[in-house]
Amino acid sequence: MPAPTALLKQSTENPADNVPLPEPDREEEIMLDASQILTSDPNIVQPASDEAENSEMVVDEEGRPRFAPGKDVDPARRVETRKVPIPPHRMAPLKANWPKIYSPLVQHLKLQVRMNTKSKCVELRSSRFTESPGALQTGVDFVHAFALGFDVDDAVALLRVDELYIETFEIKDVKTLGNEHLSRAIGRIAGKDGKTKFAIENASRTRIVLADSKISILGSFKNIHIARESIVSLILGKPPGKVYNSLRTVSARMKERF
């Protein structure tokens, strides 16, 4: 019976059997406190104590809590792109005045601009350097004003003054006129050598573009209303002399007001 005795010797001589069992005092030393883990690990966010919360809250005399003033946090801004179509008859003036157009858009509004000659449009895009959230819409209004026929110097006022708008309407919106009657109405609005249009602009402090039967007015809300009323009166057939008289009265009132 030699084999069983050999197996017994191997089992008794196994080193794992000779490892002493841990004592109770030793087990207590190995265990860690949970509070020590929370304070030692910097990645674990520790919950605020009730004393810290109470110390931060300040109550006024009426019992209302006072909070610390909020901090301005710069929100994440999206990169937006807008396209402004340019009519074919305004492409040549756009190329001629391009340095005057993109300079205020890039320097003042901090926008990215390019002229797309294939699609005949001006593309505007905001970037991380754009400071004002309404800069993109202001730039679109500026390019749109030039596309309608306004001069660059007049359209730049849209970038500098916030209270300027553009209103566009057609003669047929006021009154339906035929071929000859339509041309007469356009002639009454423009006047001889454009004198009537200039008189309305100077009296109402606006800028007017008369492109065929389409009329565009650039100015403040009240001034646009004055210019529109004069143009509507001319379309309906009112003599230019009476329109001049009403404009003189309005301009005198505006001078007294300012």
TrEMBL record:
Pfam families: KH_PNO1_2nd. Residues 1-25, 37-73 are annotated as: Disordered. Keywords: Nucleus, RNA-binding. InterPro entries: KH-I_PNO1_first, KH_dom, KH_dom_type_1_sf, KH_PNO1_2nd. Signal peptide: none annotated. Residues 50-60 have a biased composition (Acidic residues). It is found in: Nucleus, Nucleolus. Residues 163-236 form the K Homology domain. Residues 61-73 have a biased composition (Basic and acidic residues). It comes from the Eukaryota. Belongs to the PNO1 family. Required for small ribosomal subunit (SSU) synthesis. Has a role in the processing of early nucleolar and late cytoplasmic pre-RNA species. Component of the small ribosomal subunit, ribosomal RNA processing complex (SSU RRP complex). This is Pre-rRNA-processing protein PNO1.
